[in-house]
């Protein structure tokens, strides 16, 4: 009995040691990967920051109206934010690669999903940034054109155009991310439909006399001929 | 031998780019002409009402002043649908013989070519310059098809200083109504004078004469393939003559007919003129930053003066559009103007009509800040030009009110004091220009 217990204990100790011997190199590889990943991510961050500064990305972001949003949220400049984001994505990628080497059951699927999600995340950020840029550009163009044409309420027109473009961009971004696709689709449909209905009612009410005159001229005149 | 090869044989120095820029038909017509001494460029677009008279005046001018010279008229048309090109090439010189009893000793050629209106007037000028180079013209003149009051003497006044006296560029001066050409008197003339150091009254002219040498120099300098073709180059041409050290003179042509302008015409006009001037400042920085003061330009003819007849100007609308512009475009102005200038604009925007004045100093500071913002592209450059339009209306209102009862001398003094303000504040532009460099 005593010997059996000792044998079991020794066997358990051997298995533990074997398991540890099996795990330790993988852990070391993971740590090495994490370390080199950090180095690579740091280089990516510094390189990206330099490139963004070189192409005056902050100015572009200011034009898009993104800088104002970041300032309000007490966040750093857009080039700094983007380079930090790239750092974390790159480092997290290496860490997850290391974790997958550990061979922990169930984690591999999640890691694969994360890597599959990354391109969509980048595309979404790209769409969001250029969407904001387009919203800012077109709303300002509308504002200037309306002011120079002496149209009433130019700012309202400008804000409406900006809102319309941003709603459209957000719906595309959420669809790309695969988040609440149905909700966003319905919300966009309702918002866009409401806007168009509003325009239709406004033009209908405003132009009913004109429409009546046109129809009378068109059909009453046609009958008389 | 193909038609494309012949000009190369005639003038081997001409670049292939220019060859391919001209249509085969135009190259063929130019080859048929050979070489000329004088070339008249006539850009048109649906000008059938006025162009006939202009062509007759041109023909008459050539017969009277240049009967022994080889001359040609080139009409560059932007796709007229009213038969303008046919009218230009169809006008017989016999009509001029009958009216003026003048006879040509040489054949006067008249050719026409079409260009895409998308290329703006930069494309027109390029065609005229290329044709002048291919024809080895000694002196060229560009005439406006809208100048129905043009006279044969205009040709002599614009060409003689080049042909006989060795000038490179002759710009016109006109007797305008005192409230006509406010963009020129309040911005283009004073700013060009302050920065480039030459007192050219009409730096952006629809009629001007130039030497073949200046034309070739400009043709070679410009980065035509860099998208600049879409911008207006008439003002750039004048500035290139100044920066190139060319001899410039002015000629008084006479009265300039008043043309009714719509409110919507201001922004395109500002794009063509102010946009062109602002875009020239960057490549010309070395020149204008070193220039100081201003020199007068040799001018032939009498003092143009001003037409002082009453002219109805909707002052109320000018002021209202200024005030609403300042309020509505606040977010845009924040990107362009300094806080102190913007504050001052907001202060005057709420003043009553009787008290409202847009002082010269504030106007000059505004323009210089806009020029610096344009150089730094703080927002879209076209938006910067558009944002200037309401402010210009405020300045135009002030100019009209201040000079309502002014005599020609008082008006001249008013323009002169504005020019001096532009010159005095030039260091401010340099300071703004260098911020952030």
State the secondary-structure class of chain B: alpha/beta
Reported by name, the CATH topology of the largest domain in chain A is Helix Hairpins
Distance between the termini of chain A: 120 Å
| Proportion of beta-strand residues of chain B | 5-15%
* Multimer state: heterodimer
Number of beta-strand segments of chain A: 0
| Separation of the first and last Cα atoms of chain B | 55 Å
Please mark out the parts of chain A with pLDDT under 50 across 5 or more consecutive residues, or reply none: none
Q: What level of helicity do the residues of chain A show?
A: over 70%
Helix content of chain B: 40-55%
What is the CATH domain class of the largest domain in chain B? Alpha Beta
Low-confidence segments of chain B: 1-14, 226-230
Which pair of protein chains has the largest interface, and what are the residue counts? A-B, 15 and 21 residues
Mean pLDDT of chain B: 85
The SS-based structural class of chain A is: mainly alpha
Mean pLDDT of chain A: 83
Which homologous superfamily in CATH is the superfamily of the largest domain in chain B? Spore Coat Polysaccharide Biosynthesis Protein SpsA, Chain A
Q: What is the fold-level CATH name, i.e. the topology of the largest domain in chain B? A: Spore Coat Polysaccharide Biosynthesis Protein SpsA, Chain A
Radius of gyration of chain A (Å)? 30 Å
Tell me the number of structural domains of chain A: 2
